[in-house]
Amino acid sequence: MDEELRALVSDERVVFWGRVVNLHRALNTLLHADIRAATGLDGTEFEFLLRLSRFPGPRAHASKVAATMCFSSAGTTKLVARLEAKGIIDRVRDPQDGRAFQVALTDAGEAALRAGLKAHIPRLEAEVATRLTAAQRRQLQDLLSRIDPGEASAVSRPDSQ
Fold first, then answer.
1. pLDDT interval class at 153 (50, 70, 90)
2. Which of 98, 108, 119, 144 has the greatest number of beta carbons closer than 10 A?
3. Are strands 101-105 and 89-93 parallel, antiparallel or unpaired?
4. pTM
């Protein structure tokens, strides 16, 4: 391997991204298995419920929930249809905009979310939280919020600390 390629392969940004990808793959495999066992939902379905539950009010626009997941409109339509067919969410046309849909958790959706979180949280505790101090977790949370495309606060900004 020539020196230029060796330098590119070893670039700290490439190595950093590789660590992010490894962490994501490893945790997703474990977390999705826990969630599926507890709820019968796949990871994306569960994530939609979790993100929906964080919106204020009983209903939210499906597109806004999906935007926090960086989902396309076609992907959102299929996901919402699956969740509605399972009785996990209720979908109605927005009375202000007939083209848009609003969604809400059903009682079954709330039960699935609760069961999923009860499986999810211990795994997060074992695999992530216990490996970092409280201060490190807060710092990592802040750093990730700066680059997470699903976060409203994710903007390019210089390191100010």
1. low
2. 119
3. antiparallel
4. 0.81
Distance between CA 88 and CA 71 in Å, rounded?
A: 19
Side chain identity, residue 86 = K
Q: Which two tokens stand for residue 6?
A: 């060796």
Average pLDDT over residues 116-135: 94
CA dist 28 and 22 (Å) reads 10
Closest CA to 152 of 70, 60, 48, 53: 70
Q: For 62-96, what is each residue's pLDDT tens digit?
A: 999 998 888 888 888 899 999 999 999 999 988 88
Contacts 24+ apart (CB under 8 A), 31-35: 31/120, 31/123, 31/124, 34/119, 34/120, 34/123, 35/116, 35/119, 35/120
CA R_g for the chain? 19
Contact 148, 141 (CB under 8 A): no
